[in-house]
């Protein structure tokens, strides 16, 4: 018996939440960007994420071999370098006037952060190739490409909500007073650590 929308959409929300709220590079980058740009960094990063995610979902729906043909080592390497640079600029600009200049180089353009940390994150691509792909297939079976559109809408609002919450947490970090620079620097260190892990995994061919 075919699954109904009433059964399918809650499934999409629950499964999506498990991926959306998993800690990762985008989590800490959003908090760091929010510390500089306020809560609005969240929707902006979400837009960058959507720019990458929407074509990917429809490519899966059309049976594209895009993901399976990718060499994830190069994706990991590019993503790792992006994270290290972002993290370094965040640490460098974590105090004083330098924060207004250094951090704004990347976190001043949160849409690009969303694009970069989505398109260059092999785990994001693998999530859609494994966990997300069955959702796309079911949506196609229910209502074709319209079904995929409904499924994606049921997924993406969680991304925007969660990223906005994270950016708001980053903005609230300013209330830490003298500890605020350490808060921002800590986020930068975490991002650099993620980047180094991605680069090492790329060199060793670990997917």
> Helical segment tally?
8
Largest sheet: none
The span between the termini is: 36 Å
Helix-and-strand structural type: mainly alpha
Question: What does it look like?
Answer:
By secondary structure, the protein is mainly alpha-helical. It has one domain. The protein is about 80% helix and about 0% strand. It has 8 helices and no strands. The longest helix has about 50 residues, at about 120-170. It is globular and about 60 Å long. The termini are far apart.
Features:
207 residues; mainly alpha
In short:
With 207 residues, this protein is mainly alpha-helical.
SSE inventory with pairings:
Blueprint: H1 5-20, H2 25-37, H3 41-61, H4 72-92, H5 98-107, H6 110-119, H7 122-172, H8 180-203
Helix pairs in contact: 1-7, 2-5, 2-6, 2-7, 2-8, 3-6, 3-7, 4-5, 4-8
